[in-house]
Specification:
two-stranded antiparallel ribbon, globular, 11 strands, 2 domains, nine-stranded mixed beta sheet, alpha/beta
């Protein structure tokens, strides 16, 4: 745990860990941030990311070049005055490159072990062909059959097959290796809104978590924010259907195409996109980098989009004509 600095180690009662990073719909990070703020959690440790993150680009401000600030993960705690467990929350606003992901997750899990944490919760989004006005359901994936059964009894859907990309999933795999139980709560989001913040899904997963842990947490602000987001989507769709007189309205078929366009829009963080571009260049020069590139594409569930470009790396160049 060489990268974690503890300001003051709290005395915790049967603590559980909630960990979150950015992802589709910002479901995970927004849910954990909201929980941290509503419980008035106290910061007690930080994790330097220098070993796991390397700048893949620069920011331009007023025409001047700046190296991005180093990402720092932070640990917070909440002392539960009721009979339930104390809570530790880990938040980071970025995910490391895939080749560093396992080591990064391992350091967090080792720190969790030092705090005597025996359960880790994460959140994620589950994109589905649904409308943004529908109340999302929550799906569950866990590290043991016993945990799956316990959530199934609460009438929650189990995620039977699939993949949970990034650290919100990977950390649970590392936890299982270390003997810590883990649960991922996945909130449904419309496929065409993966680019848009989805507080309704964040509210759904938080509702399950708080009920499971016996926590009291006011979710009304999330509900209000969700209503505002849905109104913005409705306004946009309504504008497309009924534009100003000089513009042609669009029909339902075109609205569906618009939604599909939102779903197909790039969902990658700038850092991930830069990394993929960099790996394509490296793999073109050195095919040994192709596997690393494939893992990065799989991590973000975009291999199909890049498949032709990826397979072109293995094509032999045409012979030169004399």
């Amino acid at each position: 745990m060489k990268n974690i600095i503890v300001n003051k180690r709290p005395r915790l009662k049967n603590p559980i860990l909630v960990a979150a990073w950015p992802g589709m719909g910002d479901v995970a990070l927004k849910a954990a941030l909201y929980l941290k703020d509503k419980l008035s959690c106290v910061e007690f440790a930080s994790m330097s990311a220098e070993e796991y993150f390397h700048p893949s680009g620069v920011w331009i401000d007023n025409s001047l070049v700046h190296i991005p600030e180093q990402t720092v993960g932070k640990f917070y705690f909440y002392k539960n005055s009721a009979s339930g467990p104390d809570i530790v929350i880990f938040l980071s606003d970025a995910q490391p490159f895939i080749e560093k992901g396992h080591s990064y997750a391992k350091e967090i899990v080792d720190f969790a072990l030092s705090l005597k944490i025996k359960m880790i919760y994460t959140f994620a989004a589950m994109p589905l062909p649904m409308e943004h006005t529908q109340m999302p359901q929550v799906h569950v994936a866990a590290t043991s059959k016993e945990l799956c059964d316990s959530f199934s009894k609460k009438n929650l859907k189990l995620m039977v097959t699939g993949q949970i990309s990034g650290l919100n999933g990977l950390i649970l795999g590392v936890a299982k290796e270390k003997g810590i139980d883990g649960v991922c709560l996945l909130g449904e989001i419309p496929i065409y809104t993966i680019q848009i913040e989805n507080p309704l899904a964040s509210m759904a997963v938080l509702s399950v978590l708080t009920q499971t842990l016996g926590l009291t947490c006011d979710l009304s602000d999330l509900r209000k924010h969700a209503e505002e987001i849905n109104q913005e989507i409705e306004h946009l769709i309504e504008y497309l259907k009924n534009p100003p007189e000089e513009e042609r309205p669009i029909d339902e078929t075109e609205v569906d195409l618009f939604k599909k366009g939102l779903a197909d829009a790039p969902s990658l963080p700038d850092s991930a996109r830069s990394r993929i571009d960099e790996l394509f260049i490296l793999a073109k020069k050195d095919l040994s980098k192709a596997m690393e590139l494939k893992k990065e594409l799989d991590k973000w569930n975009i291999y199909e989009k890049y498949e032709d470009h990826f397979l072109d790396l293995f094509k032999k160049p045409p012979k030169k004509q004399n």
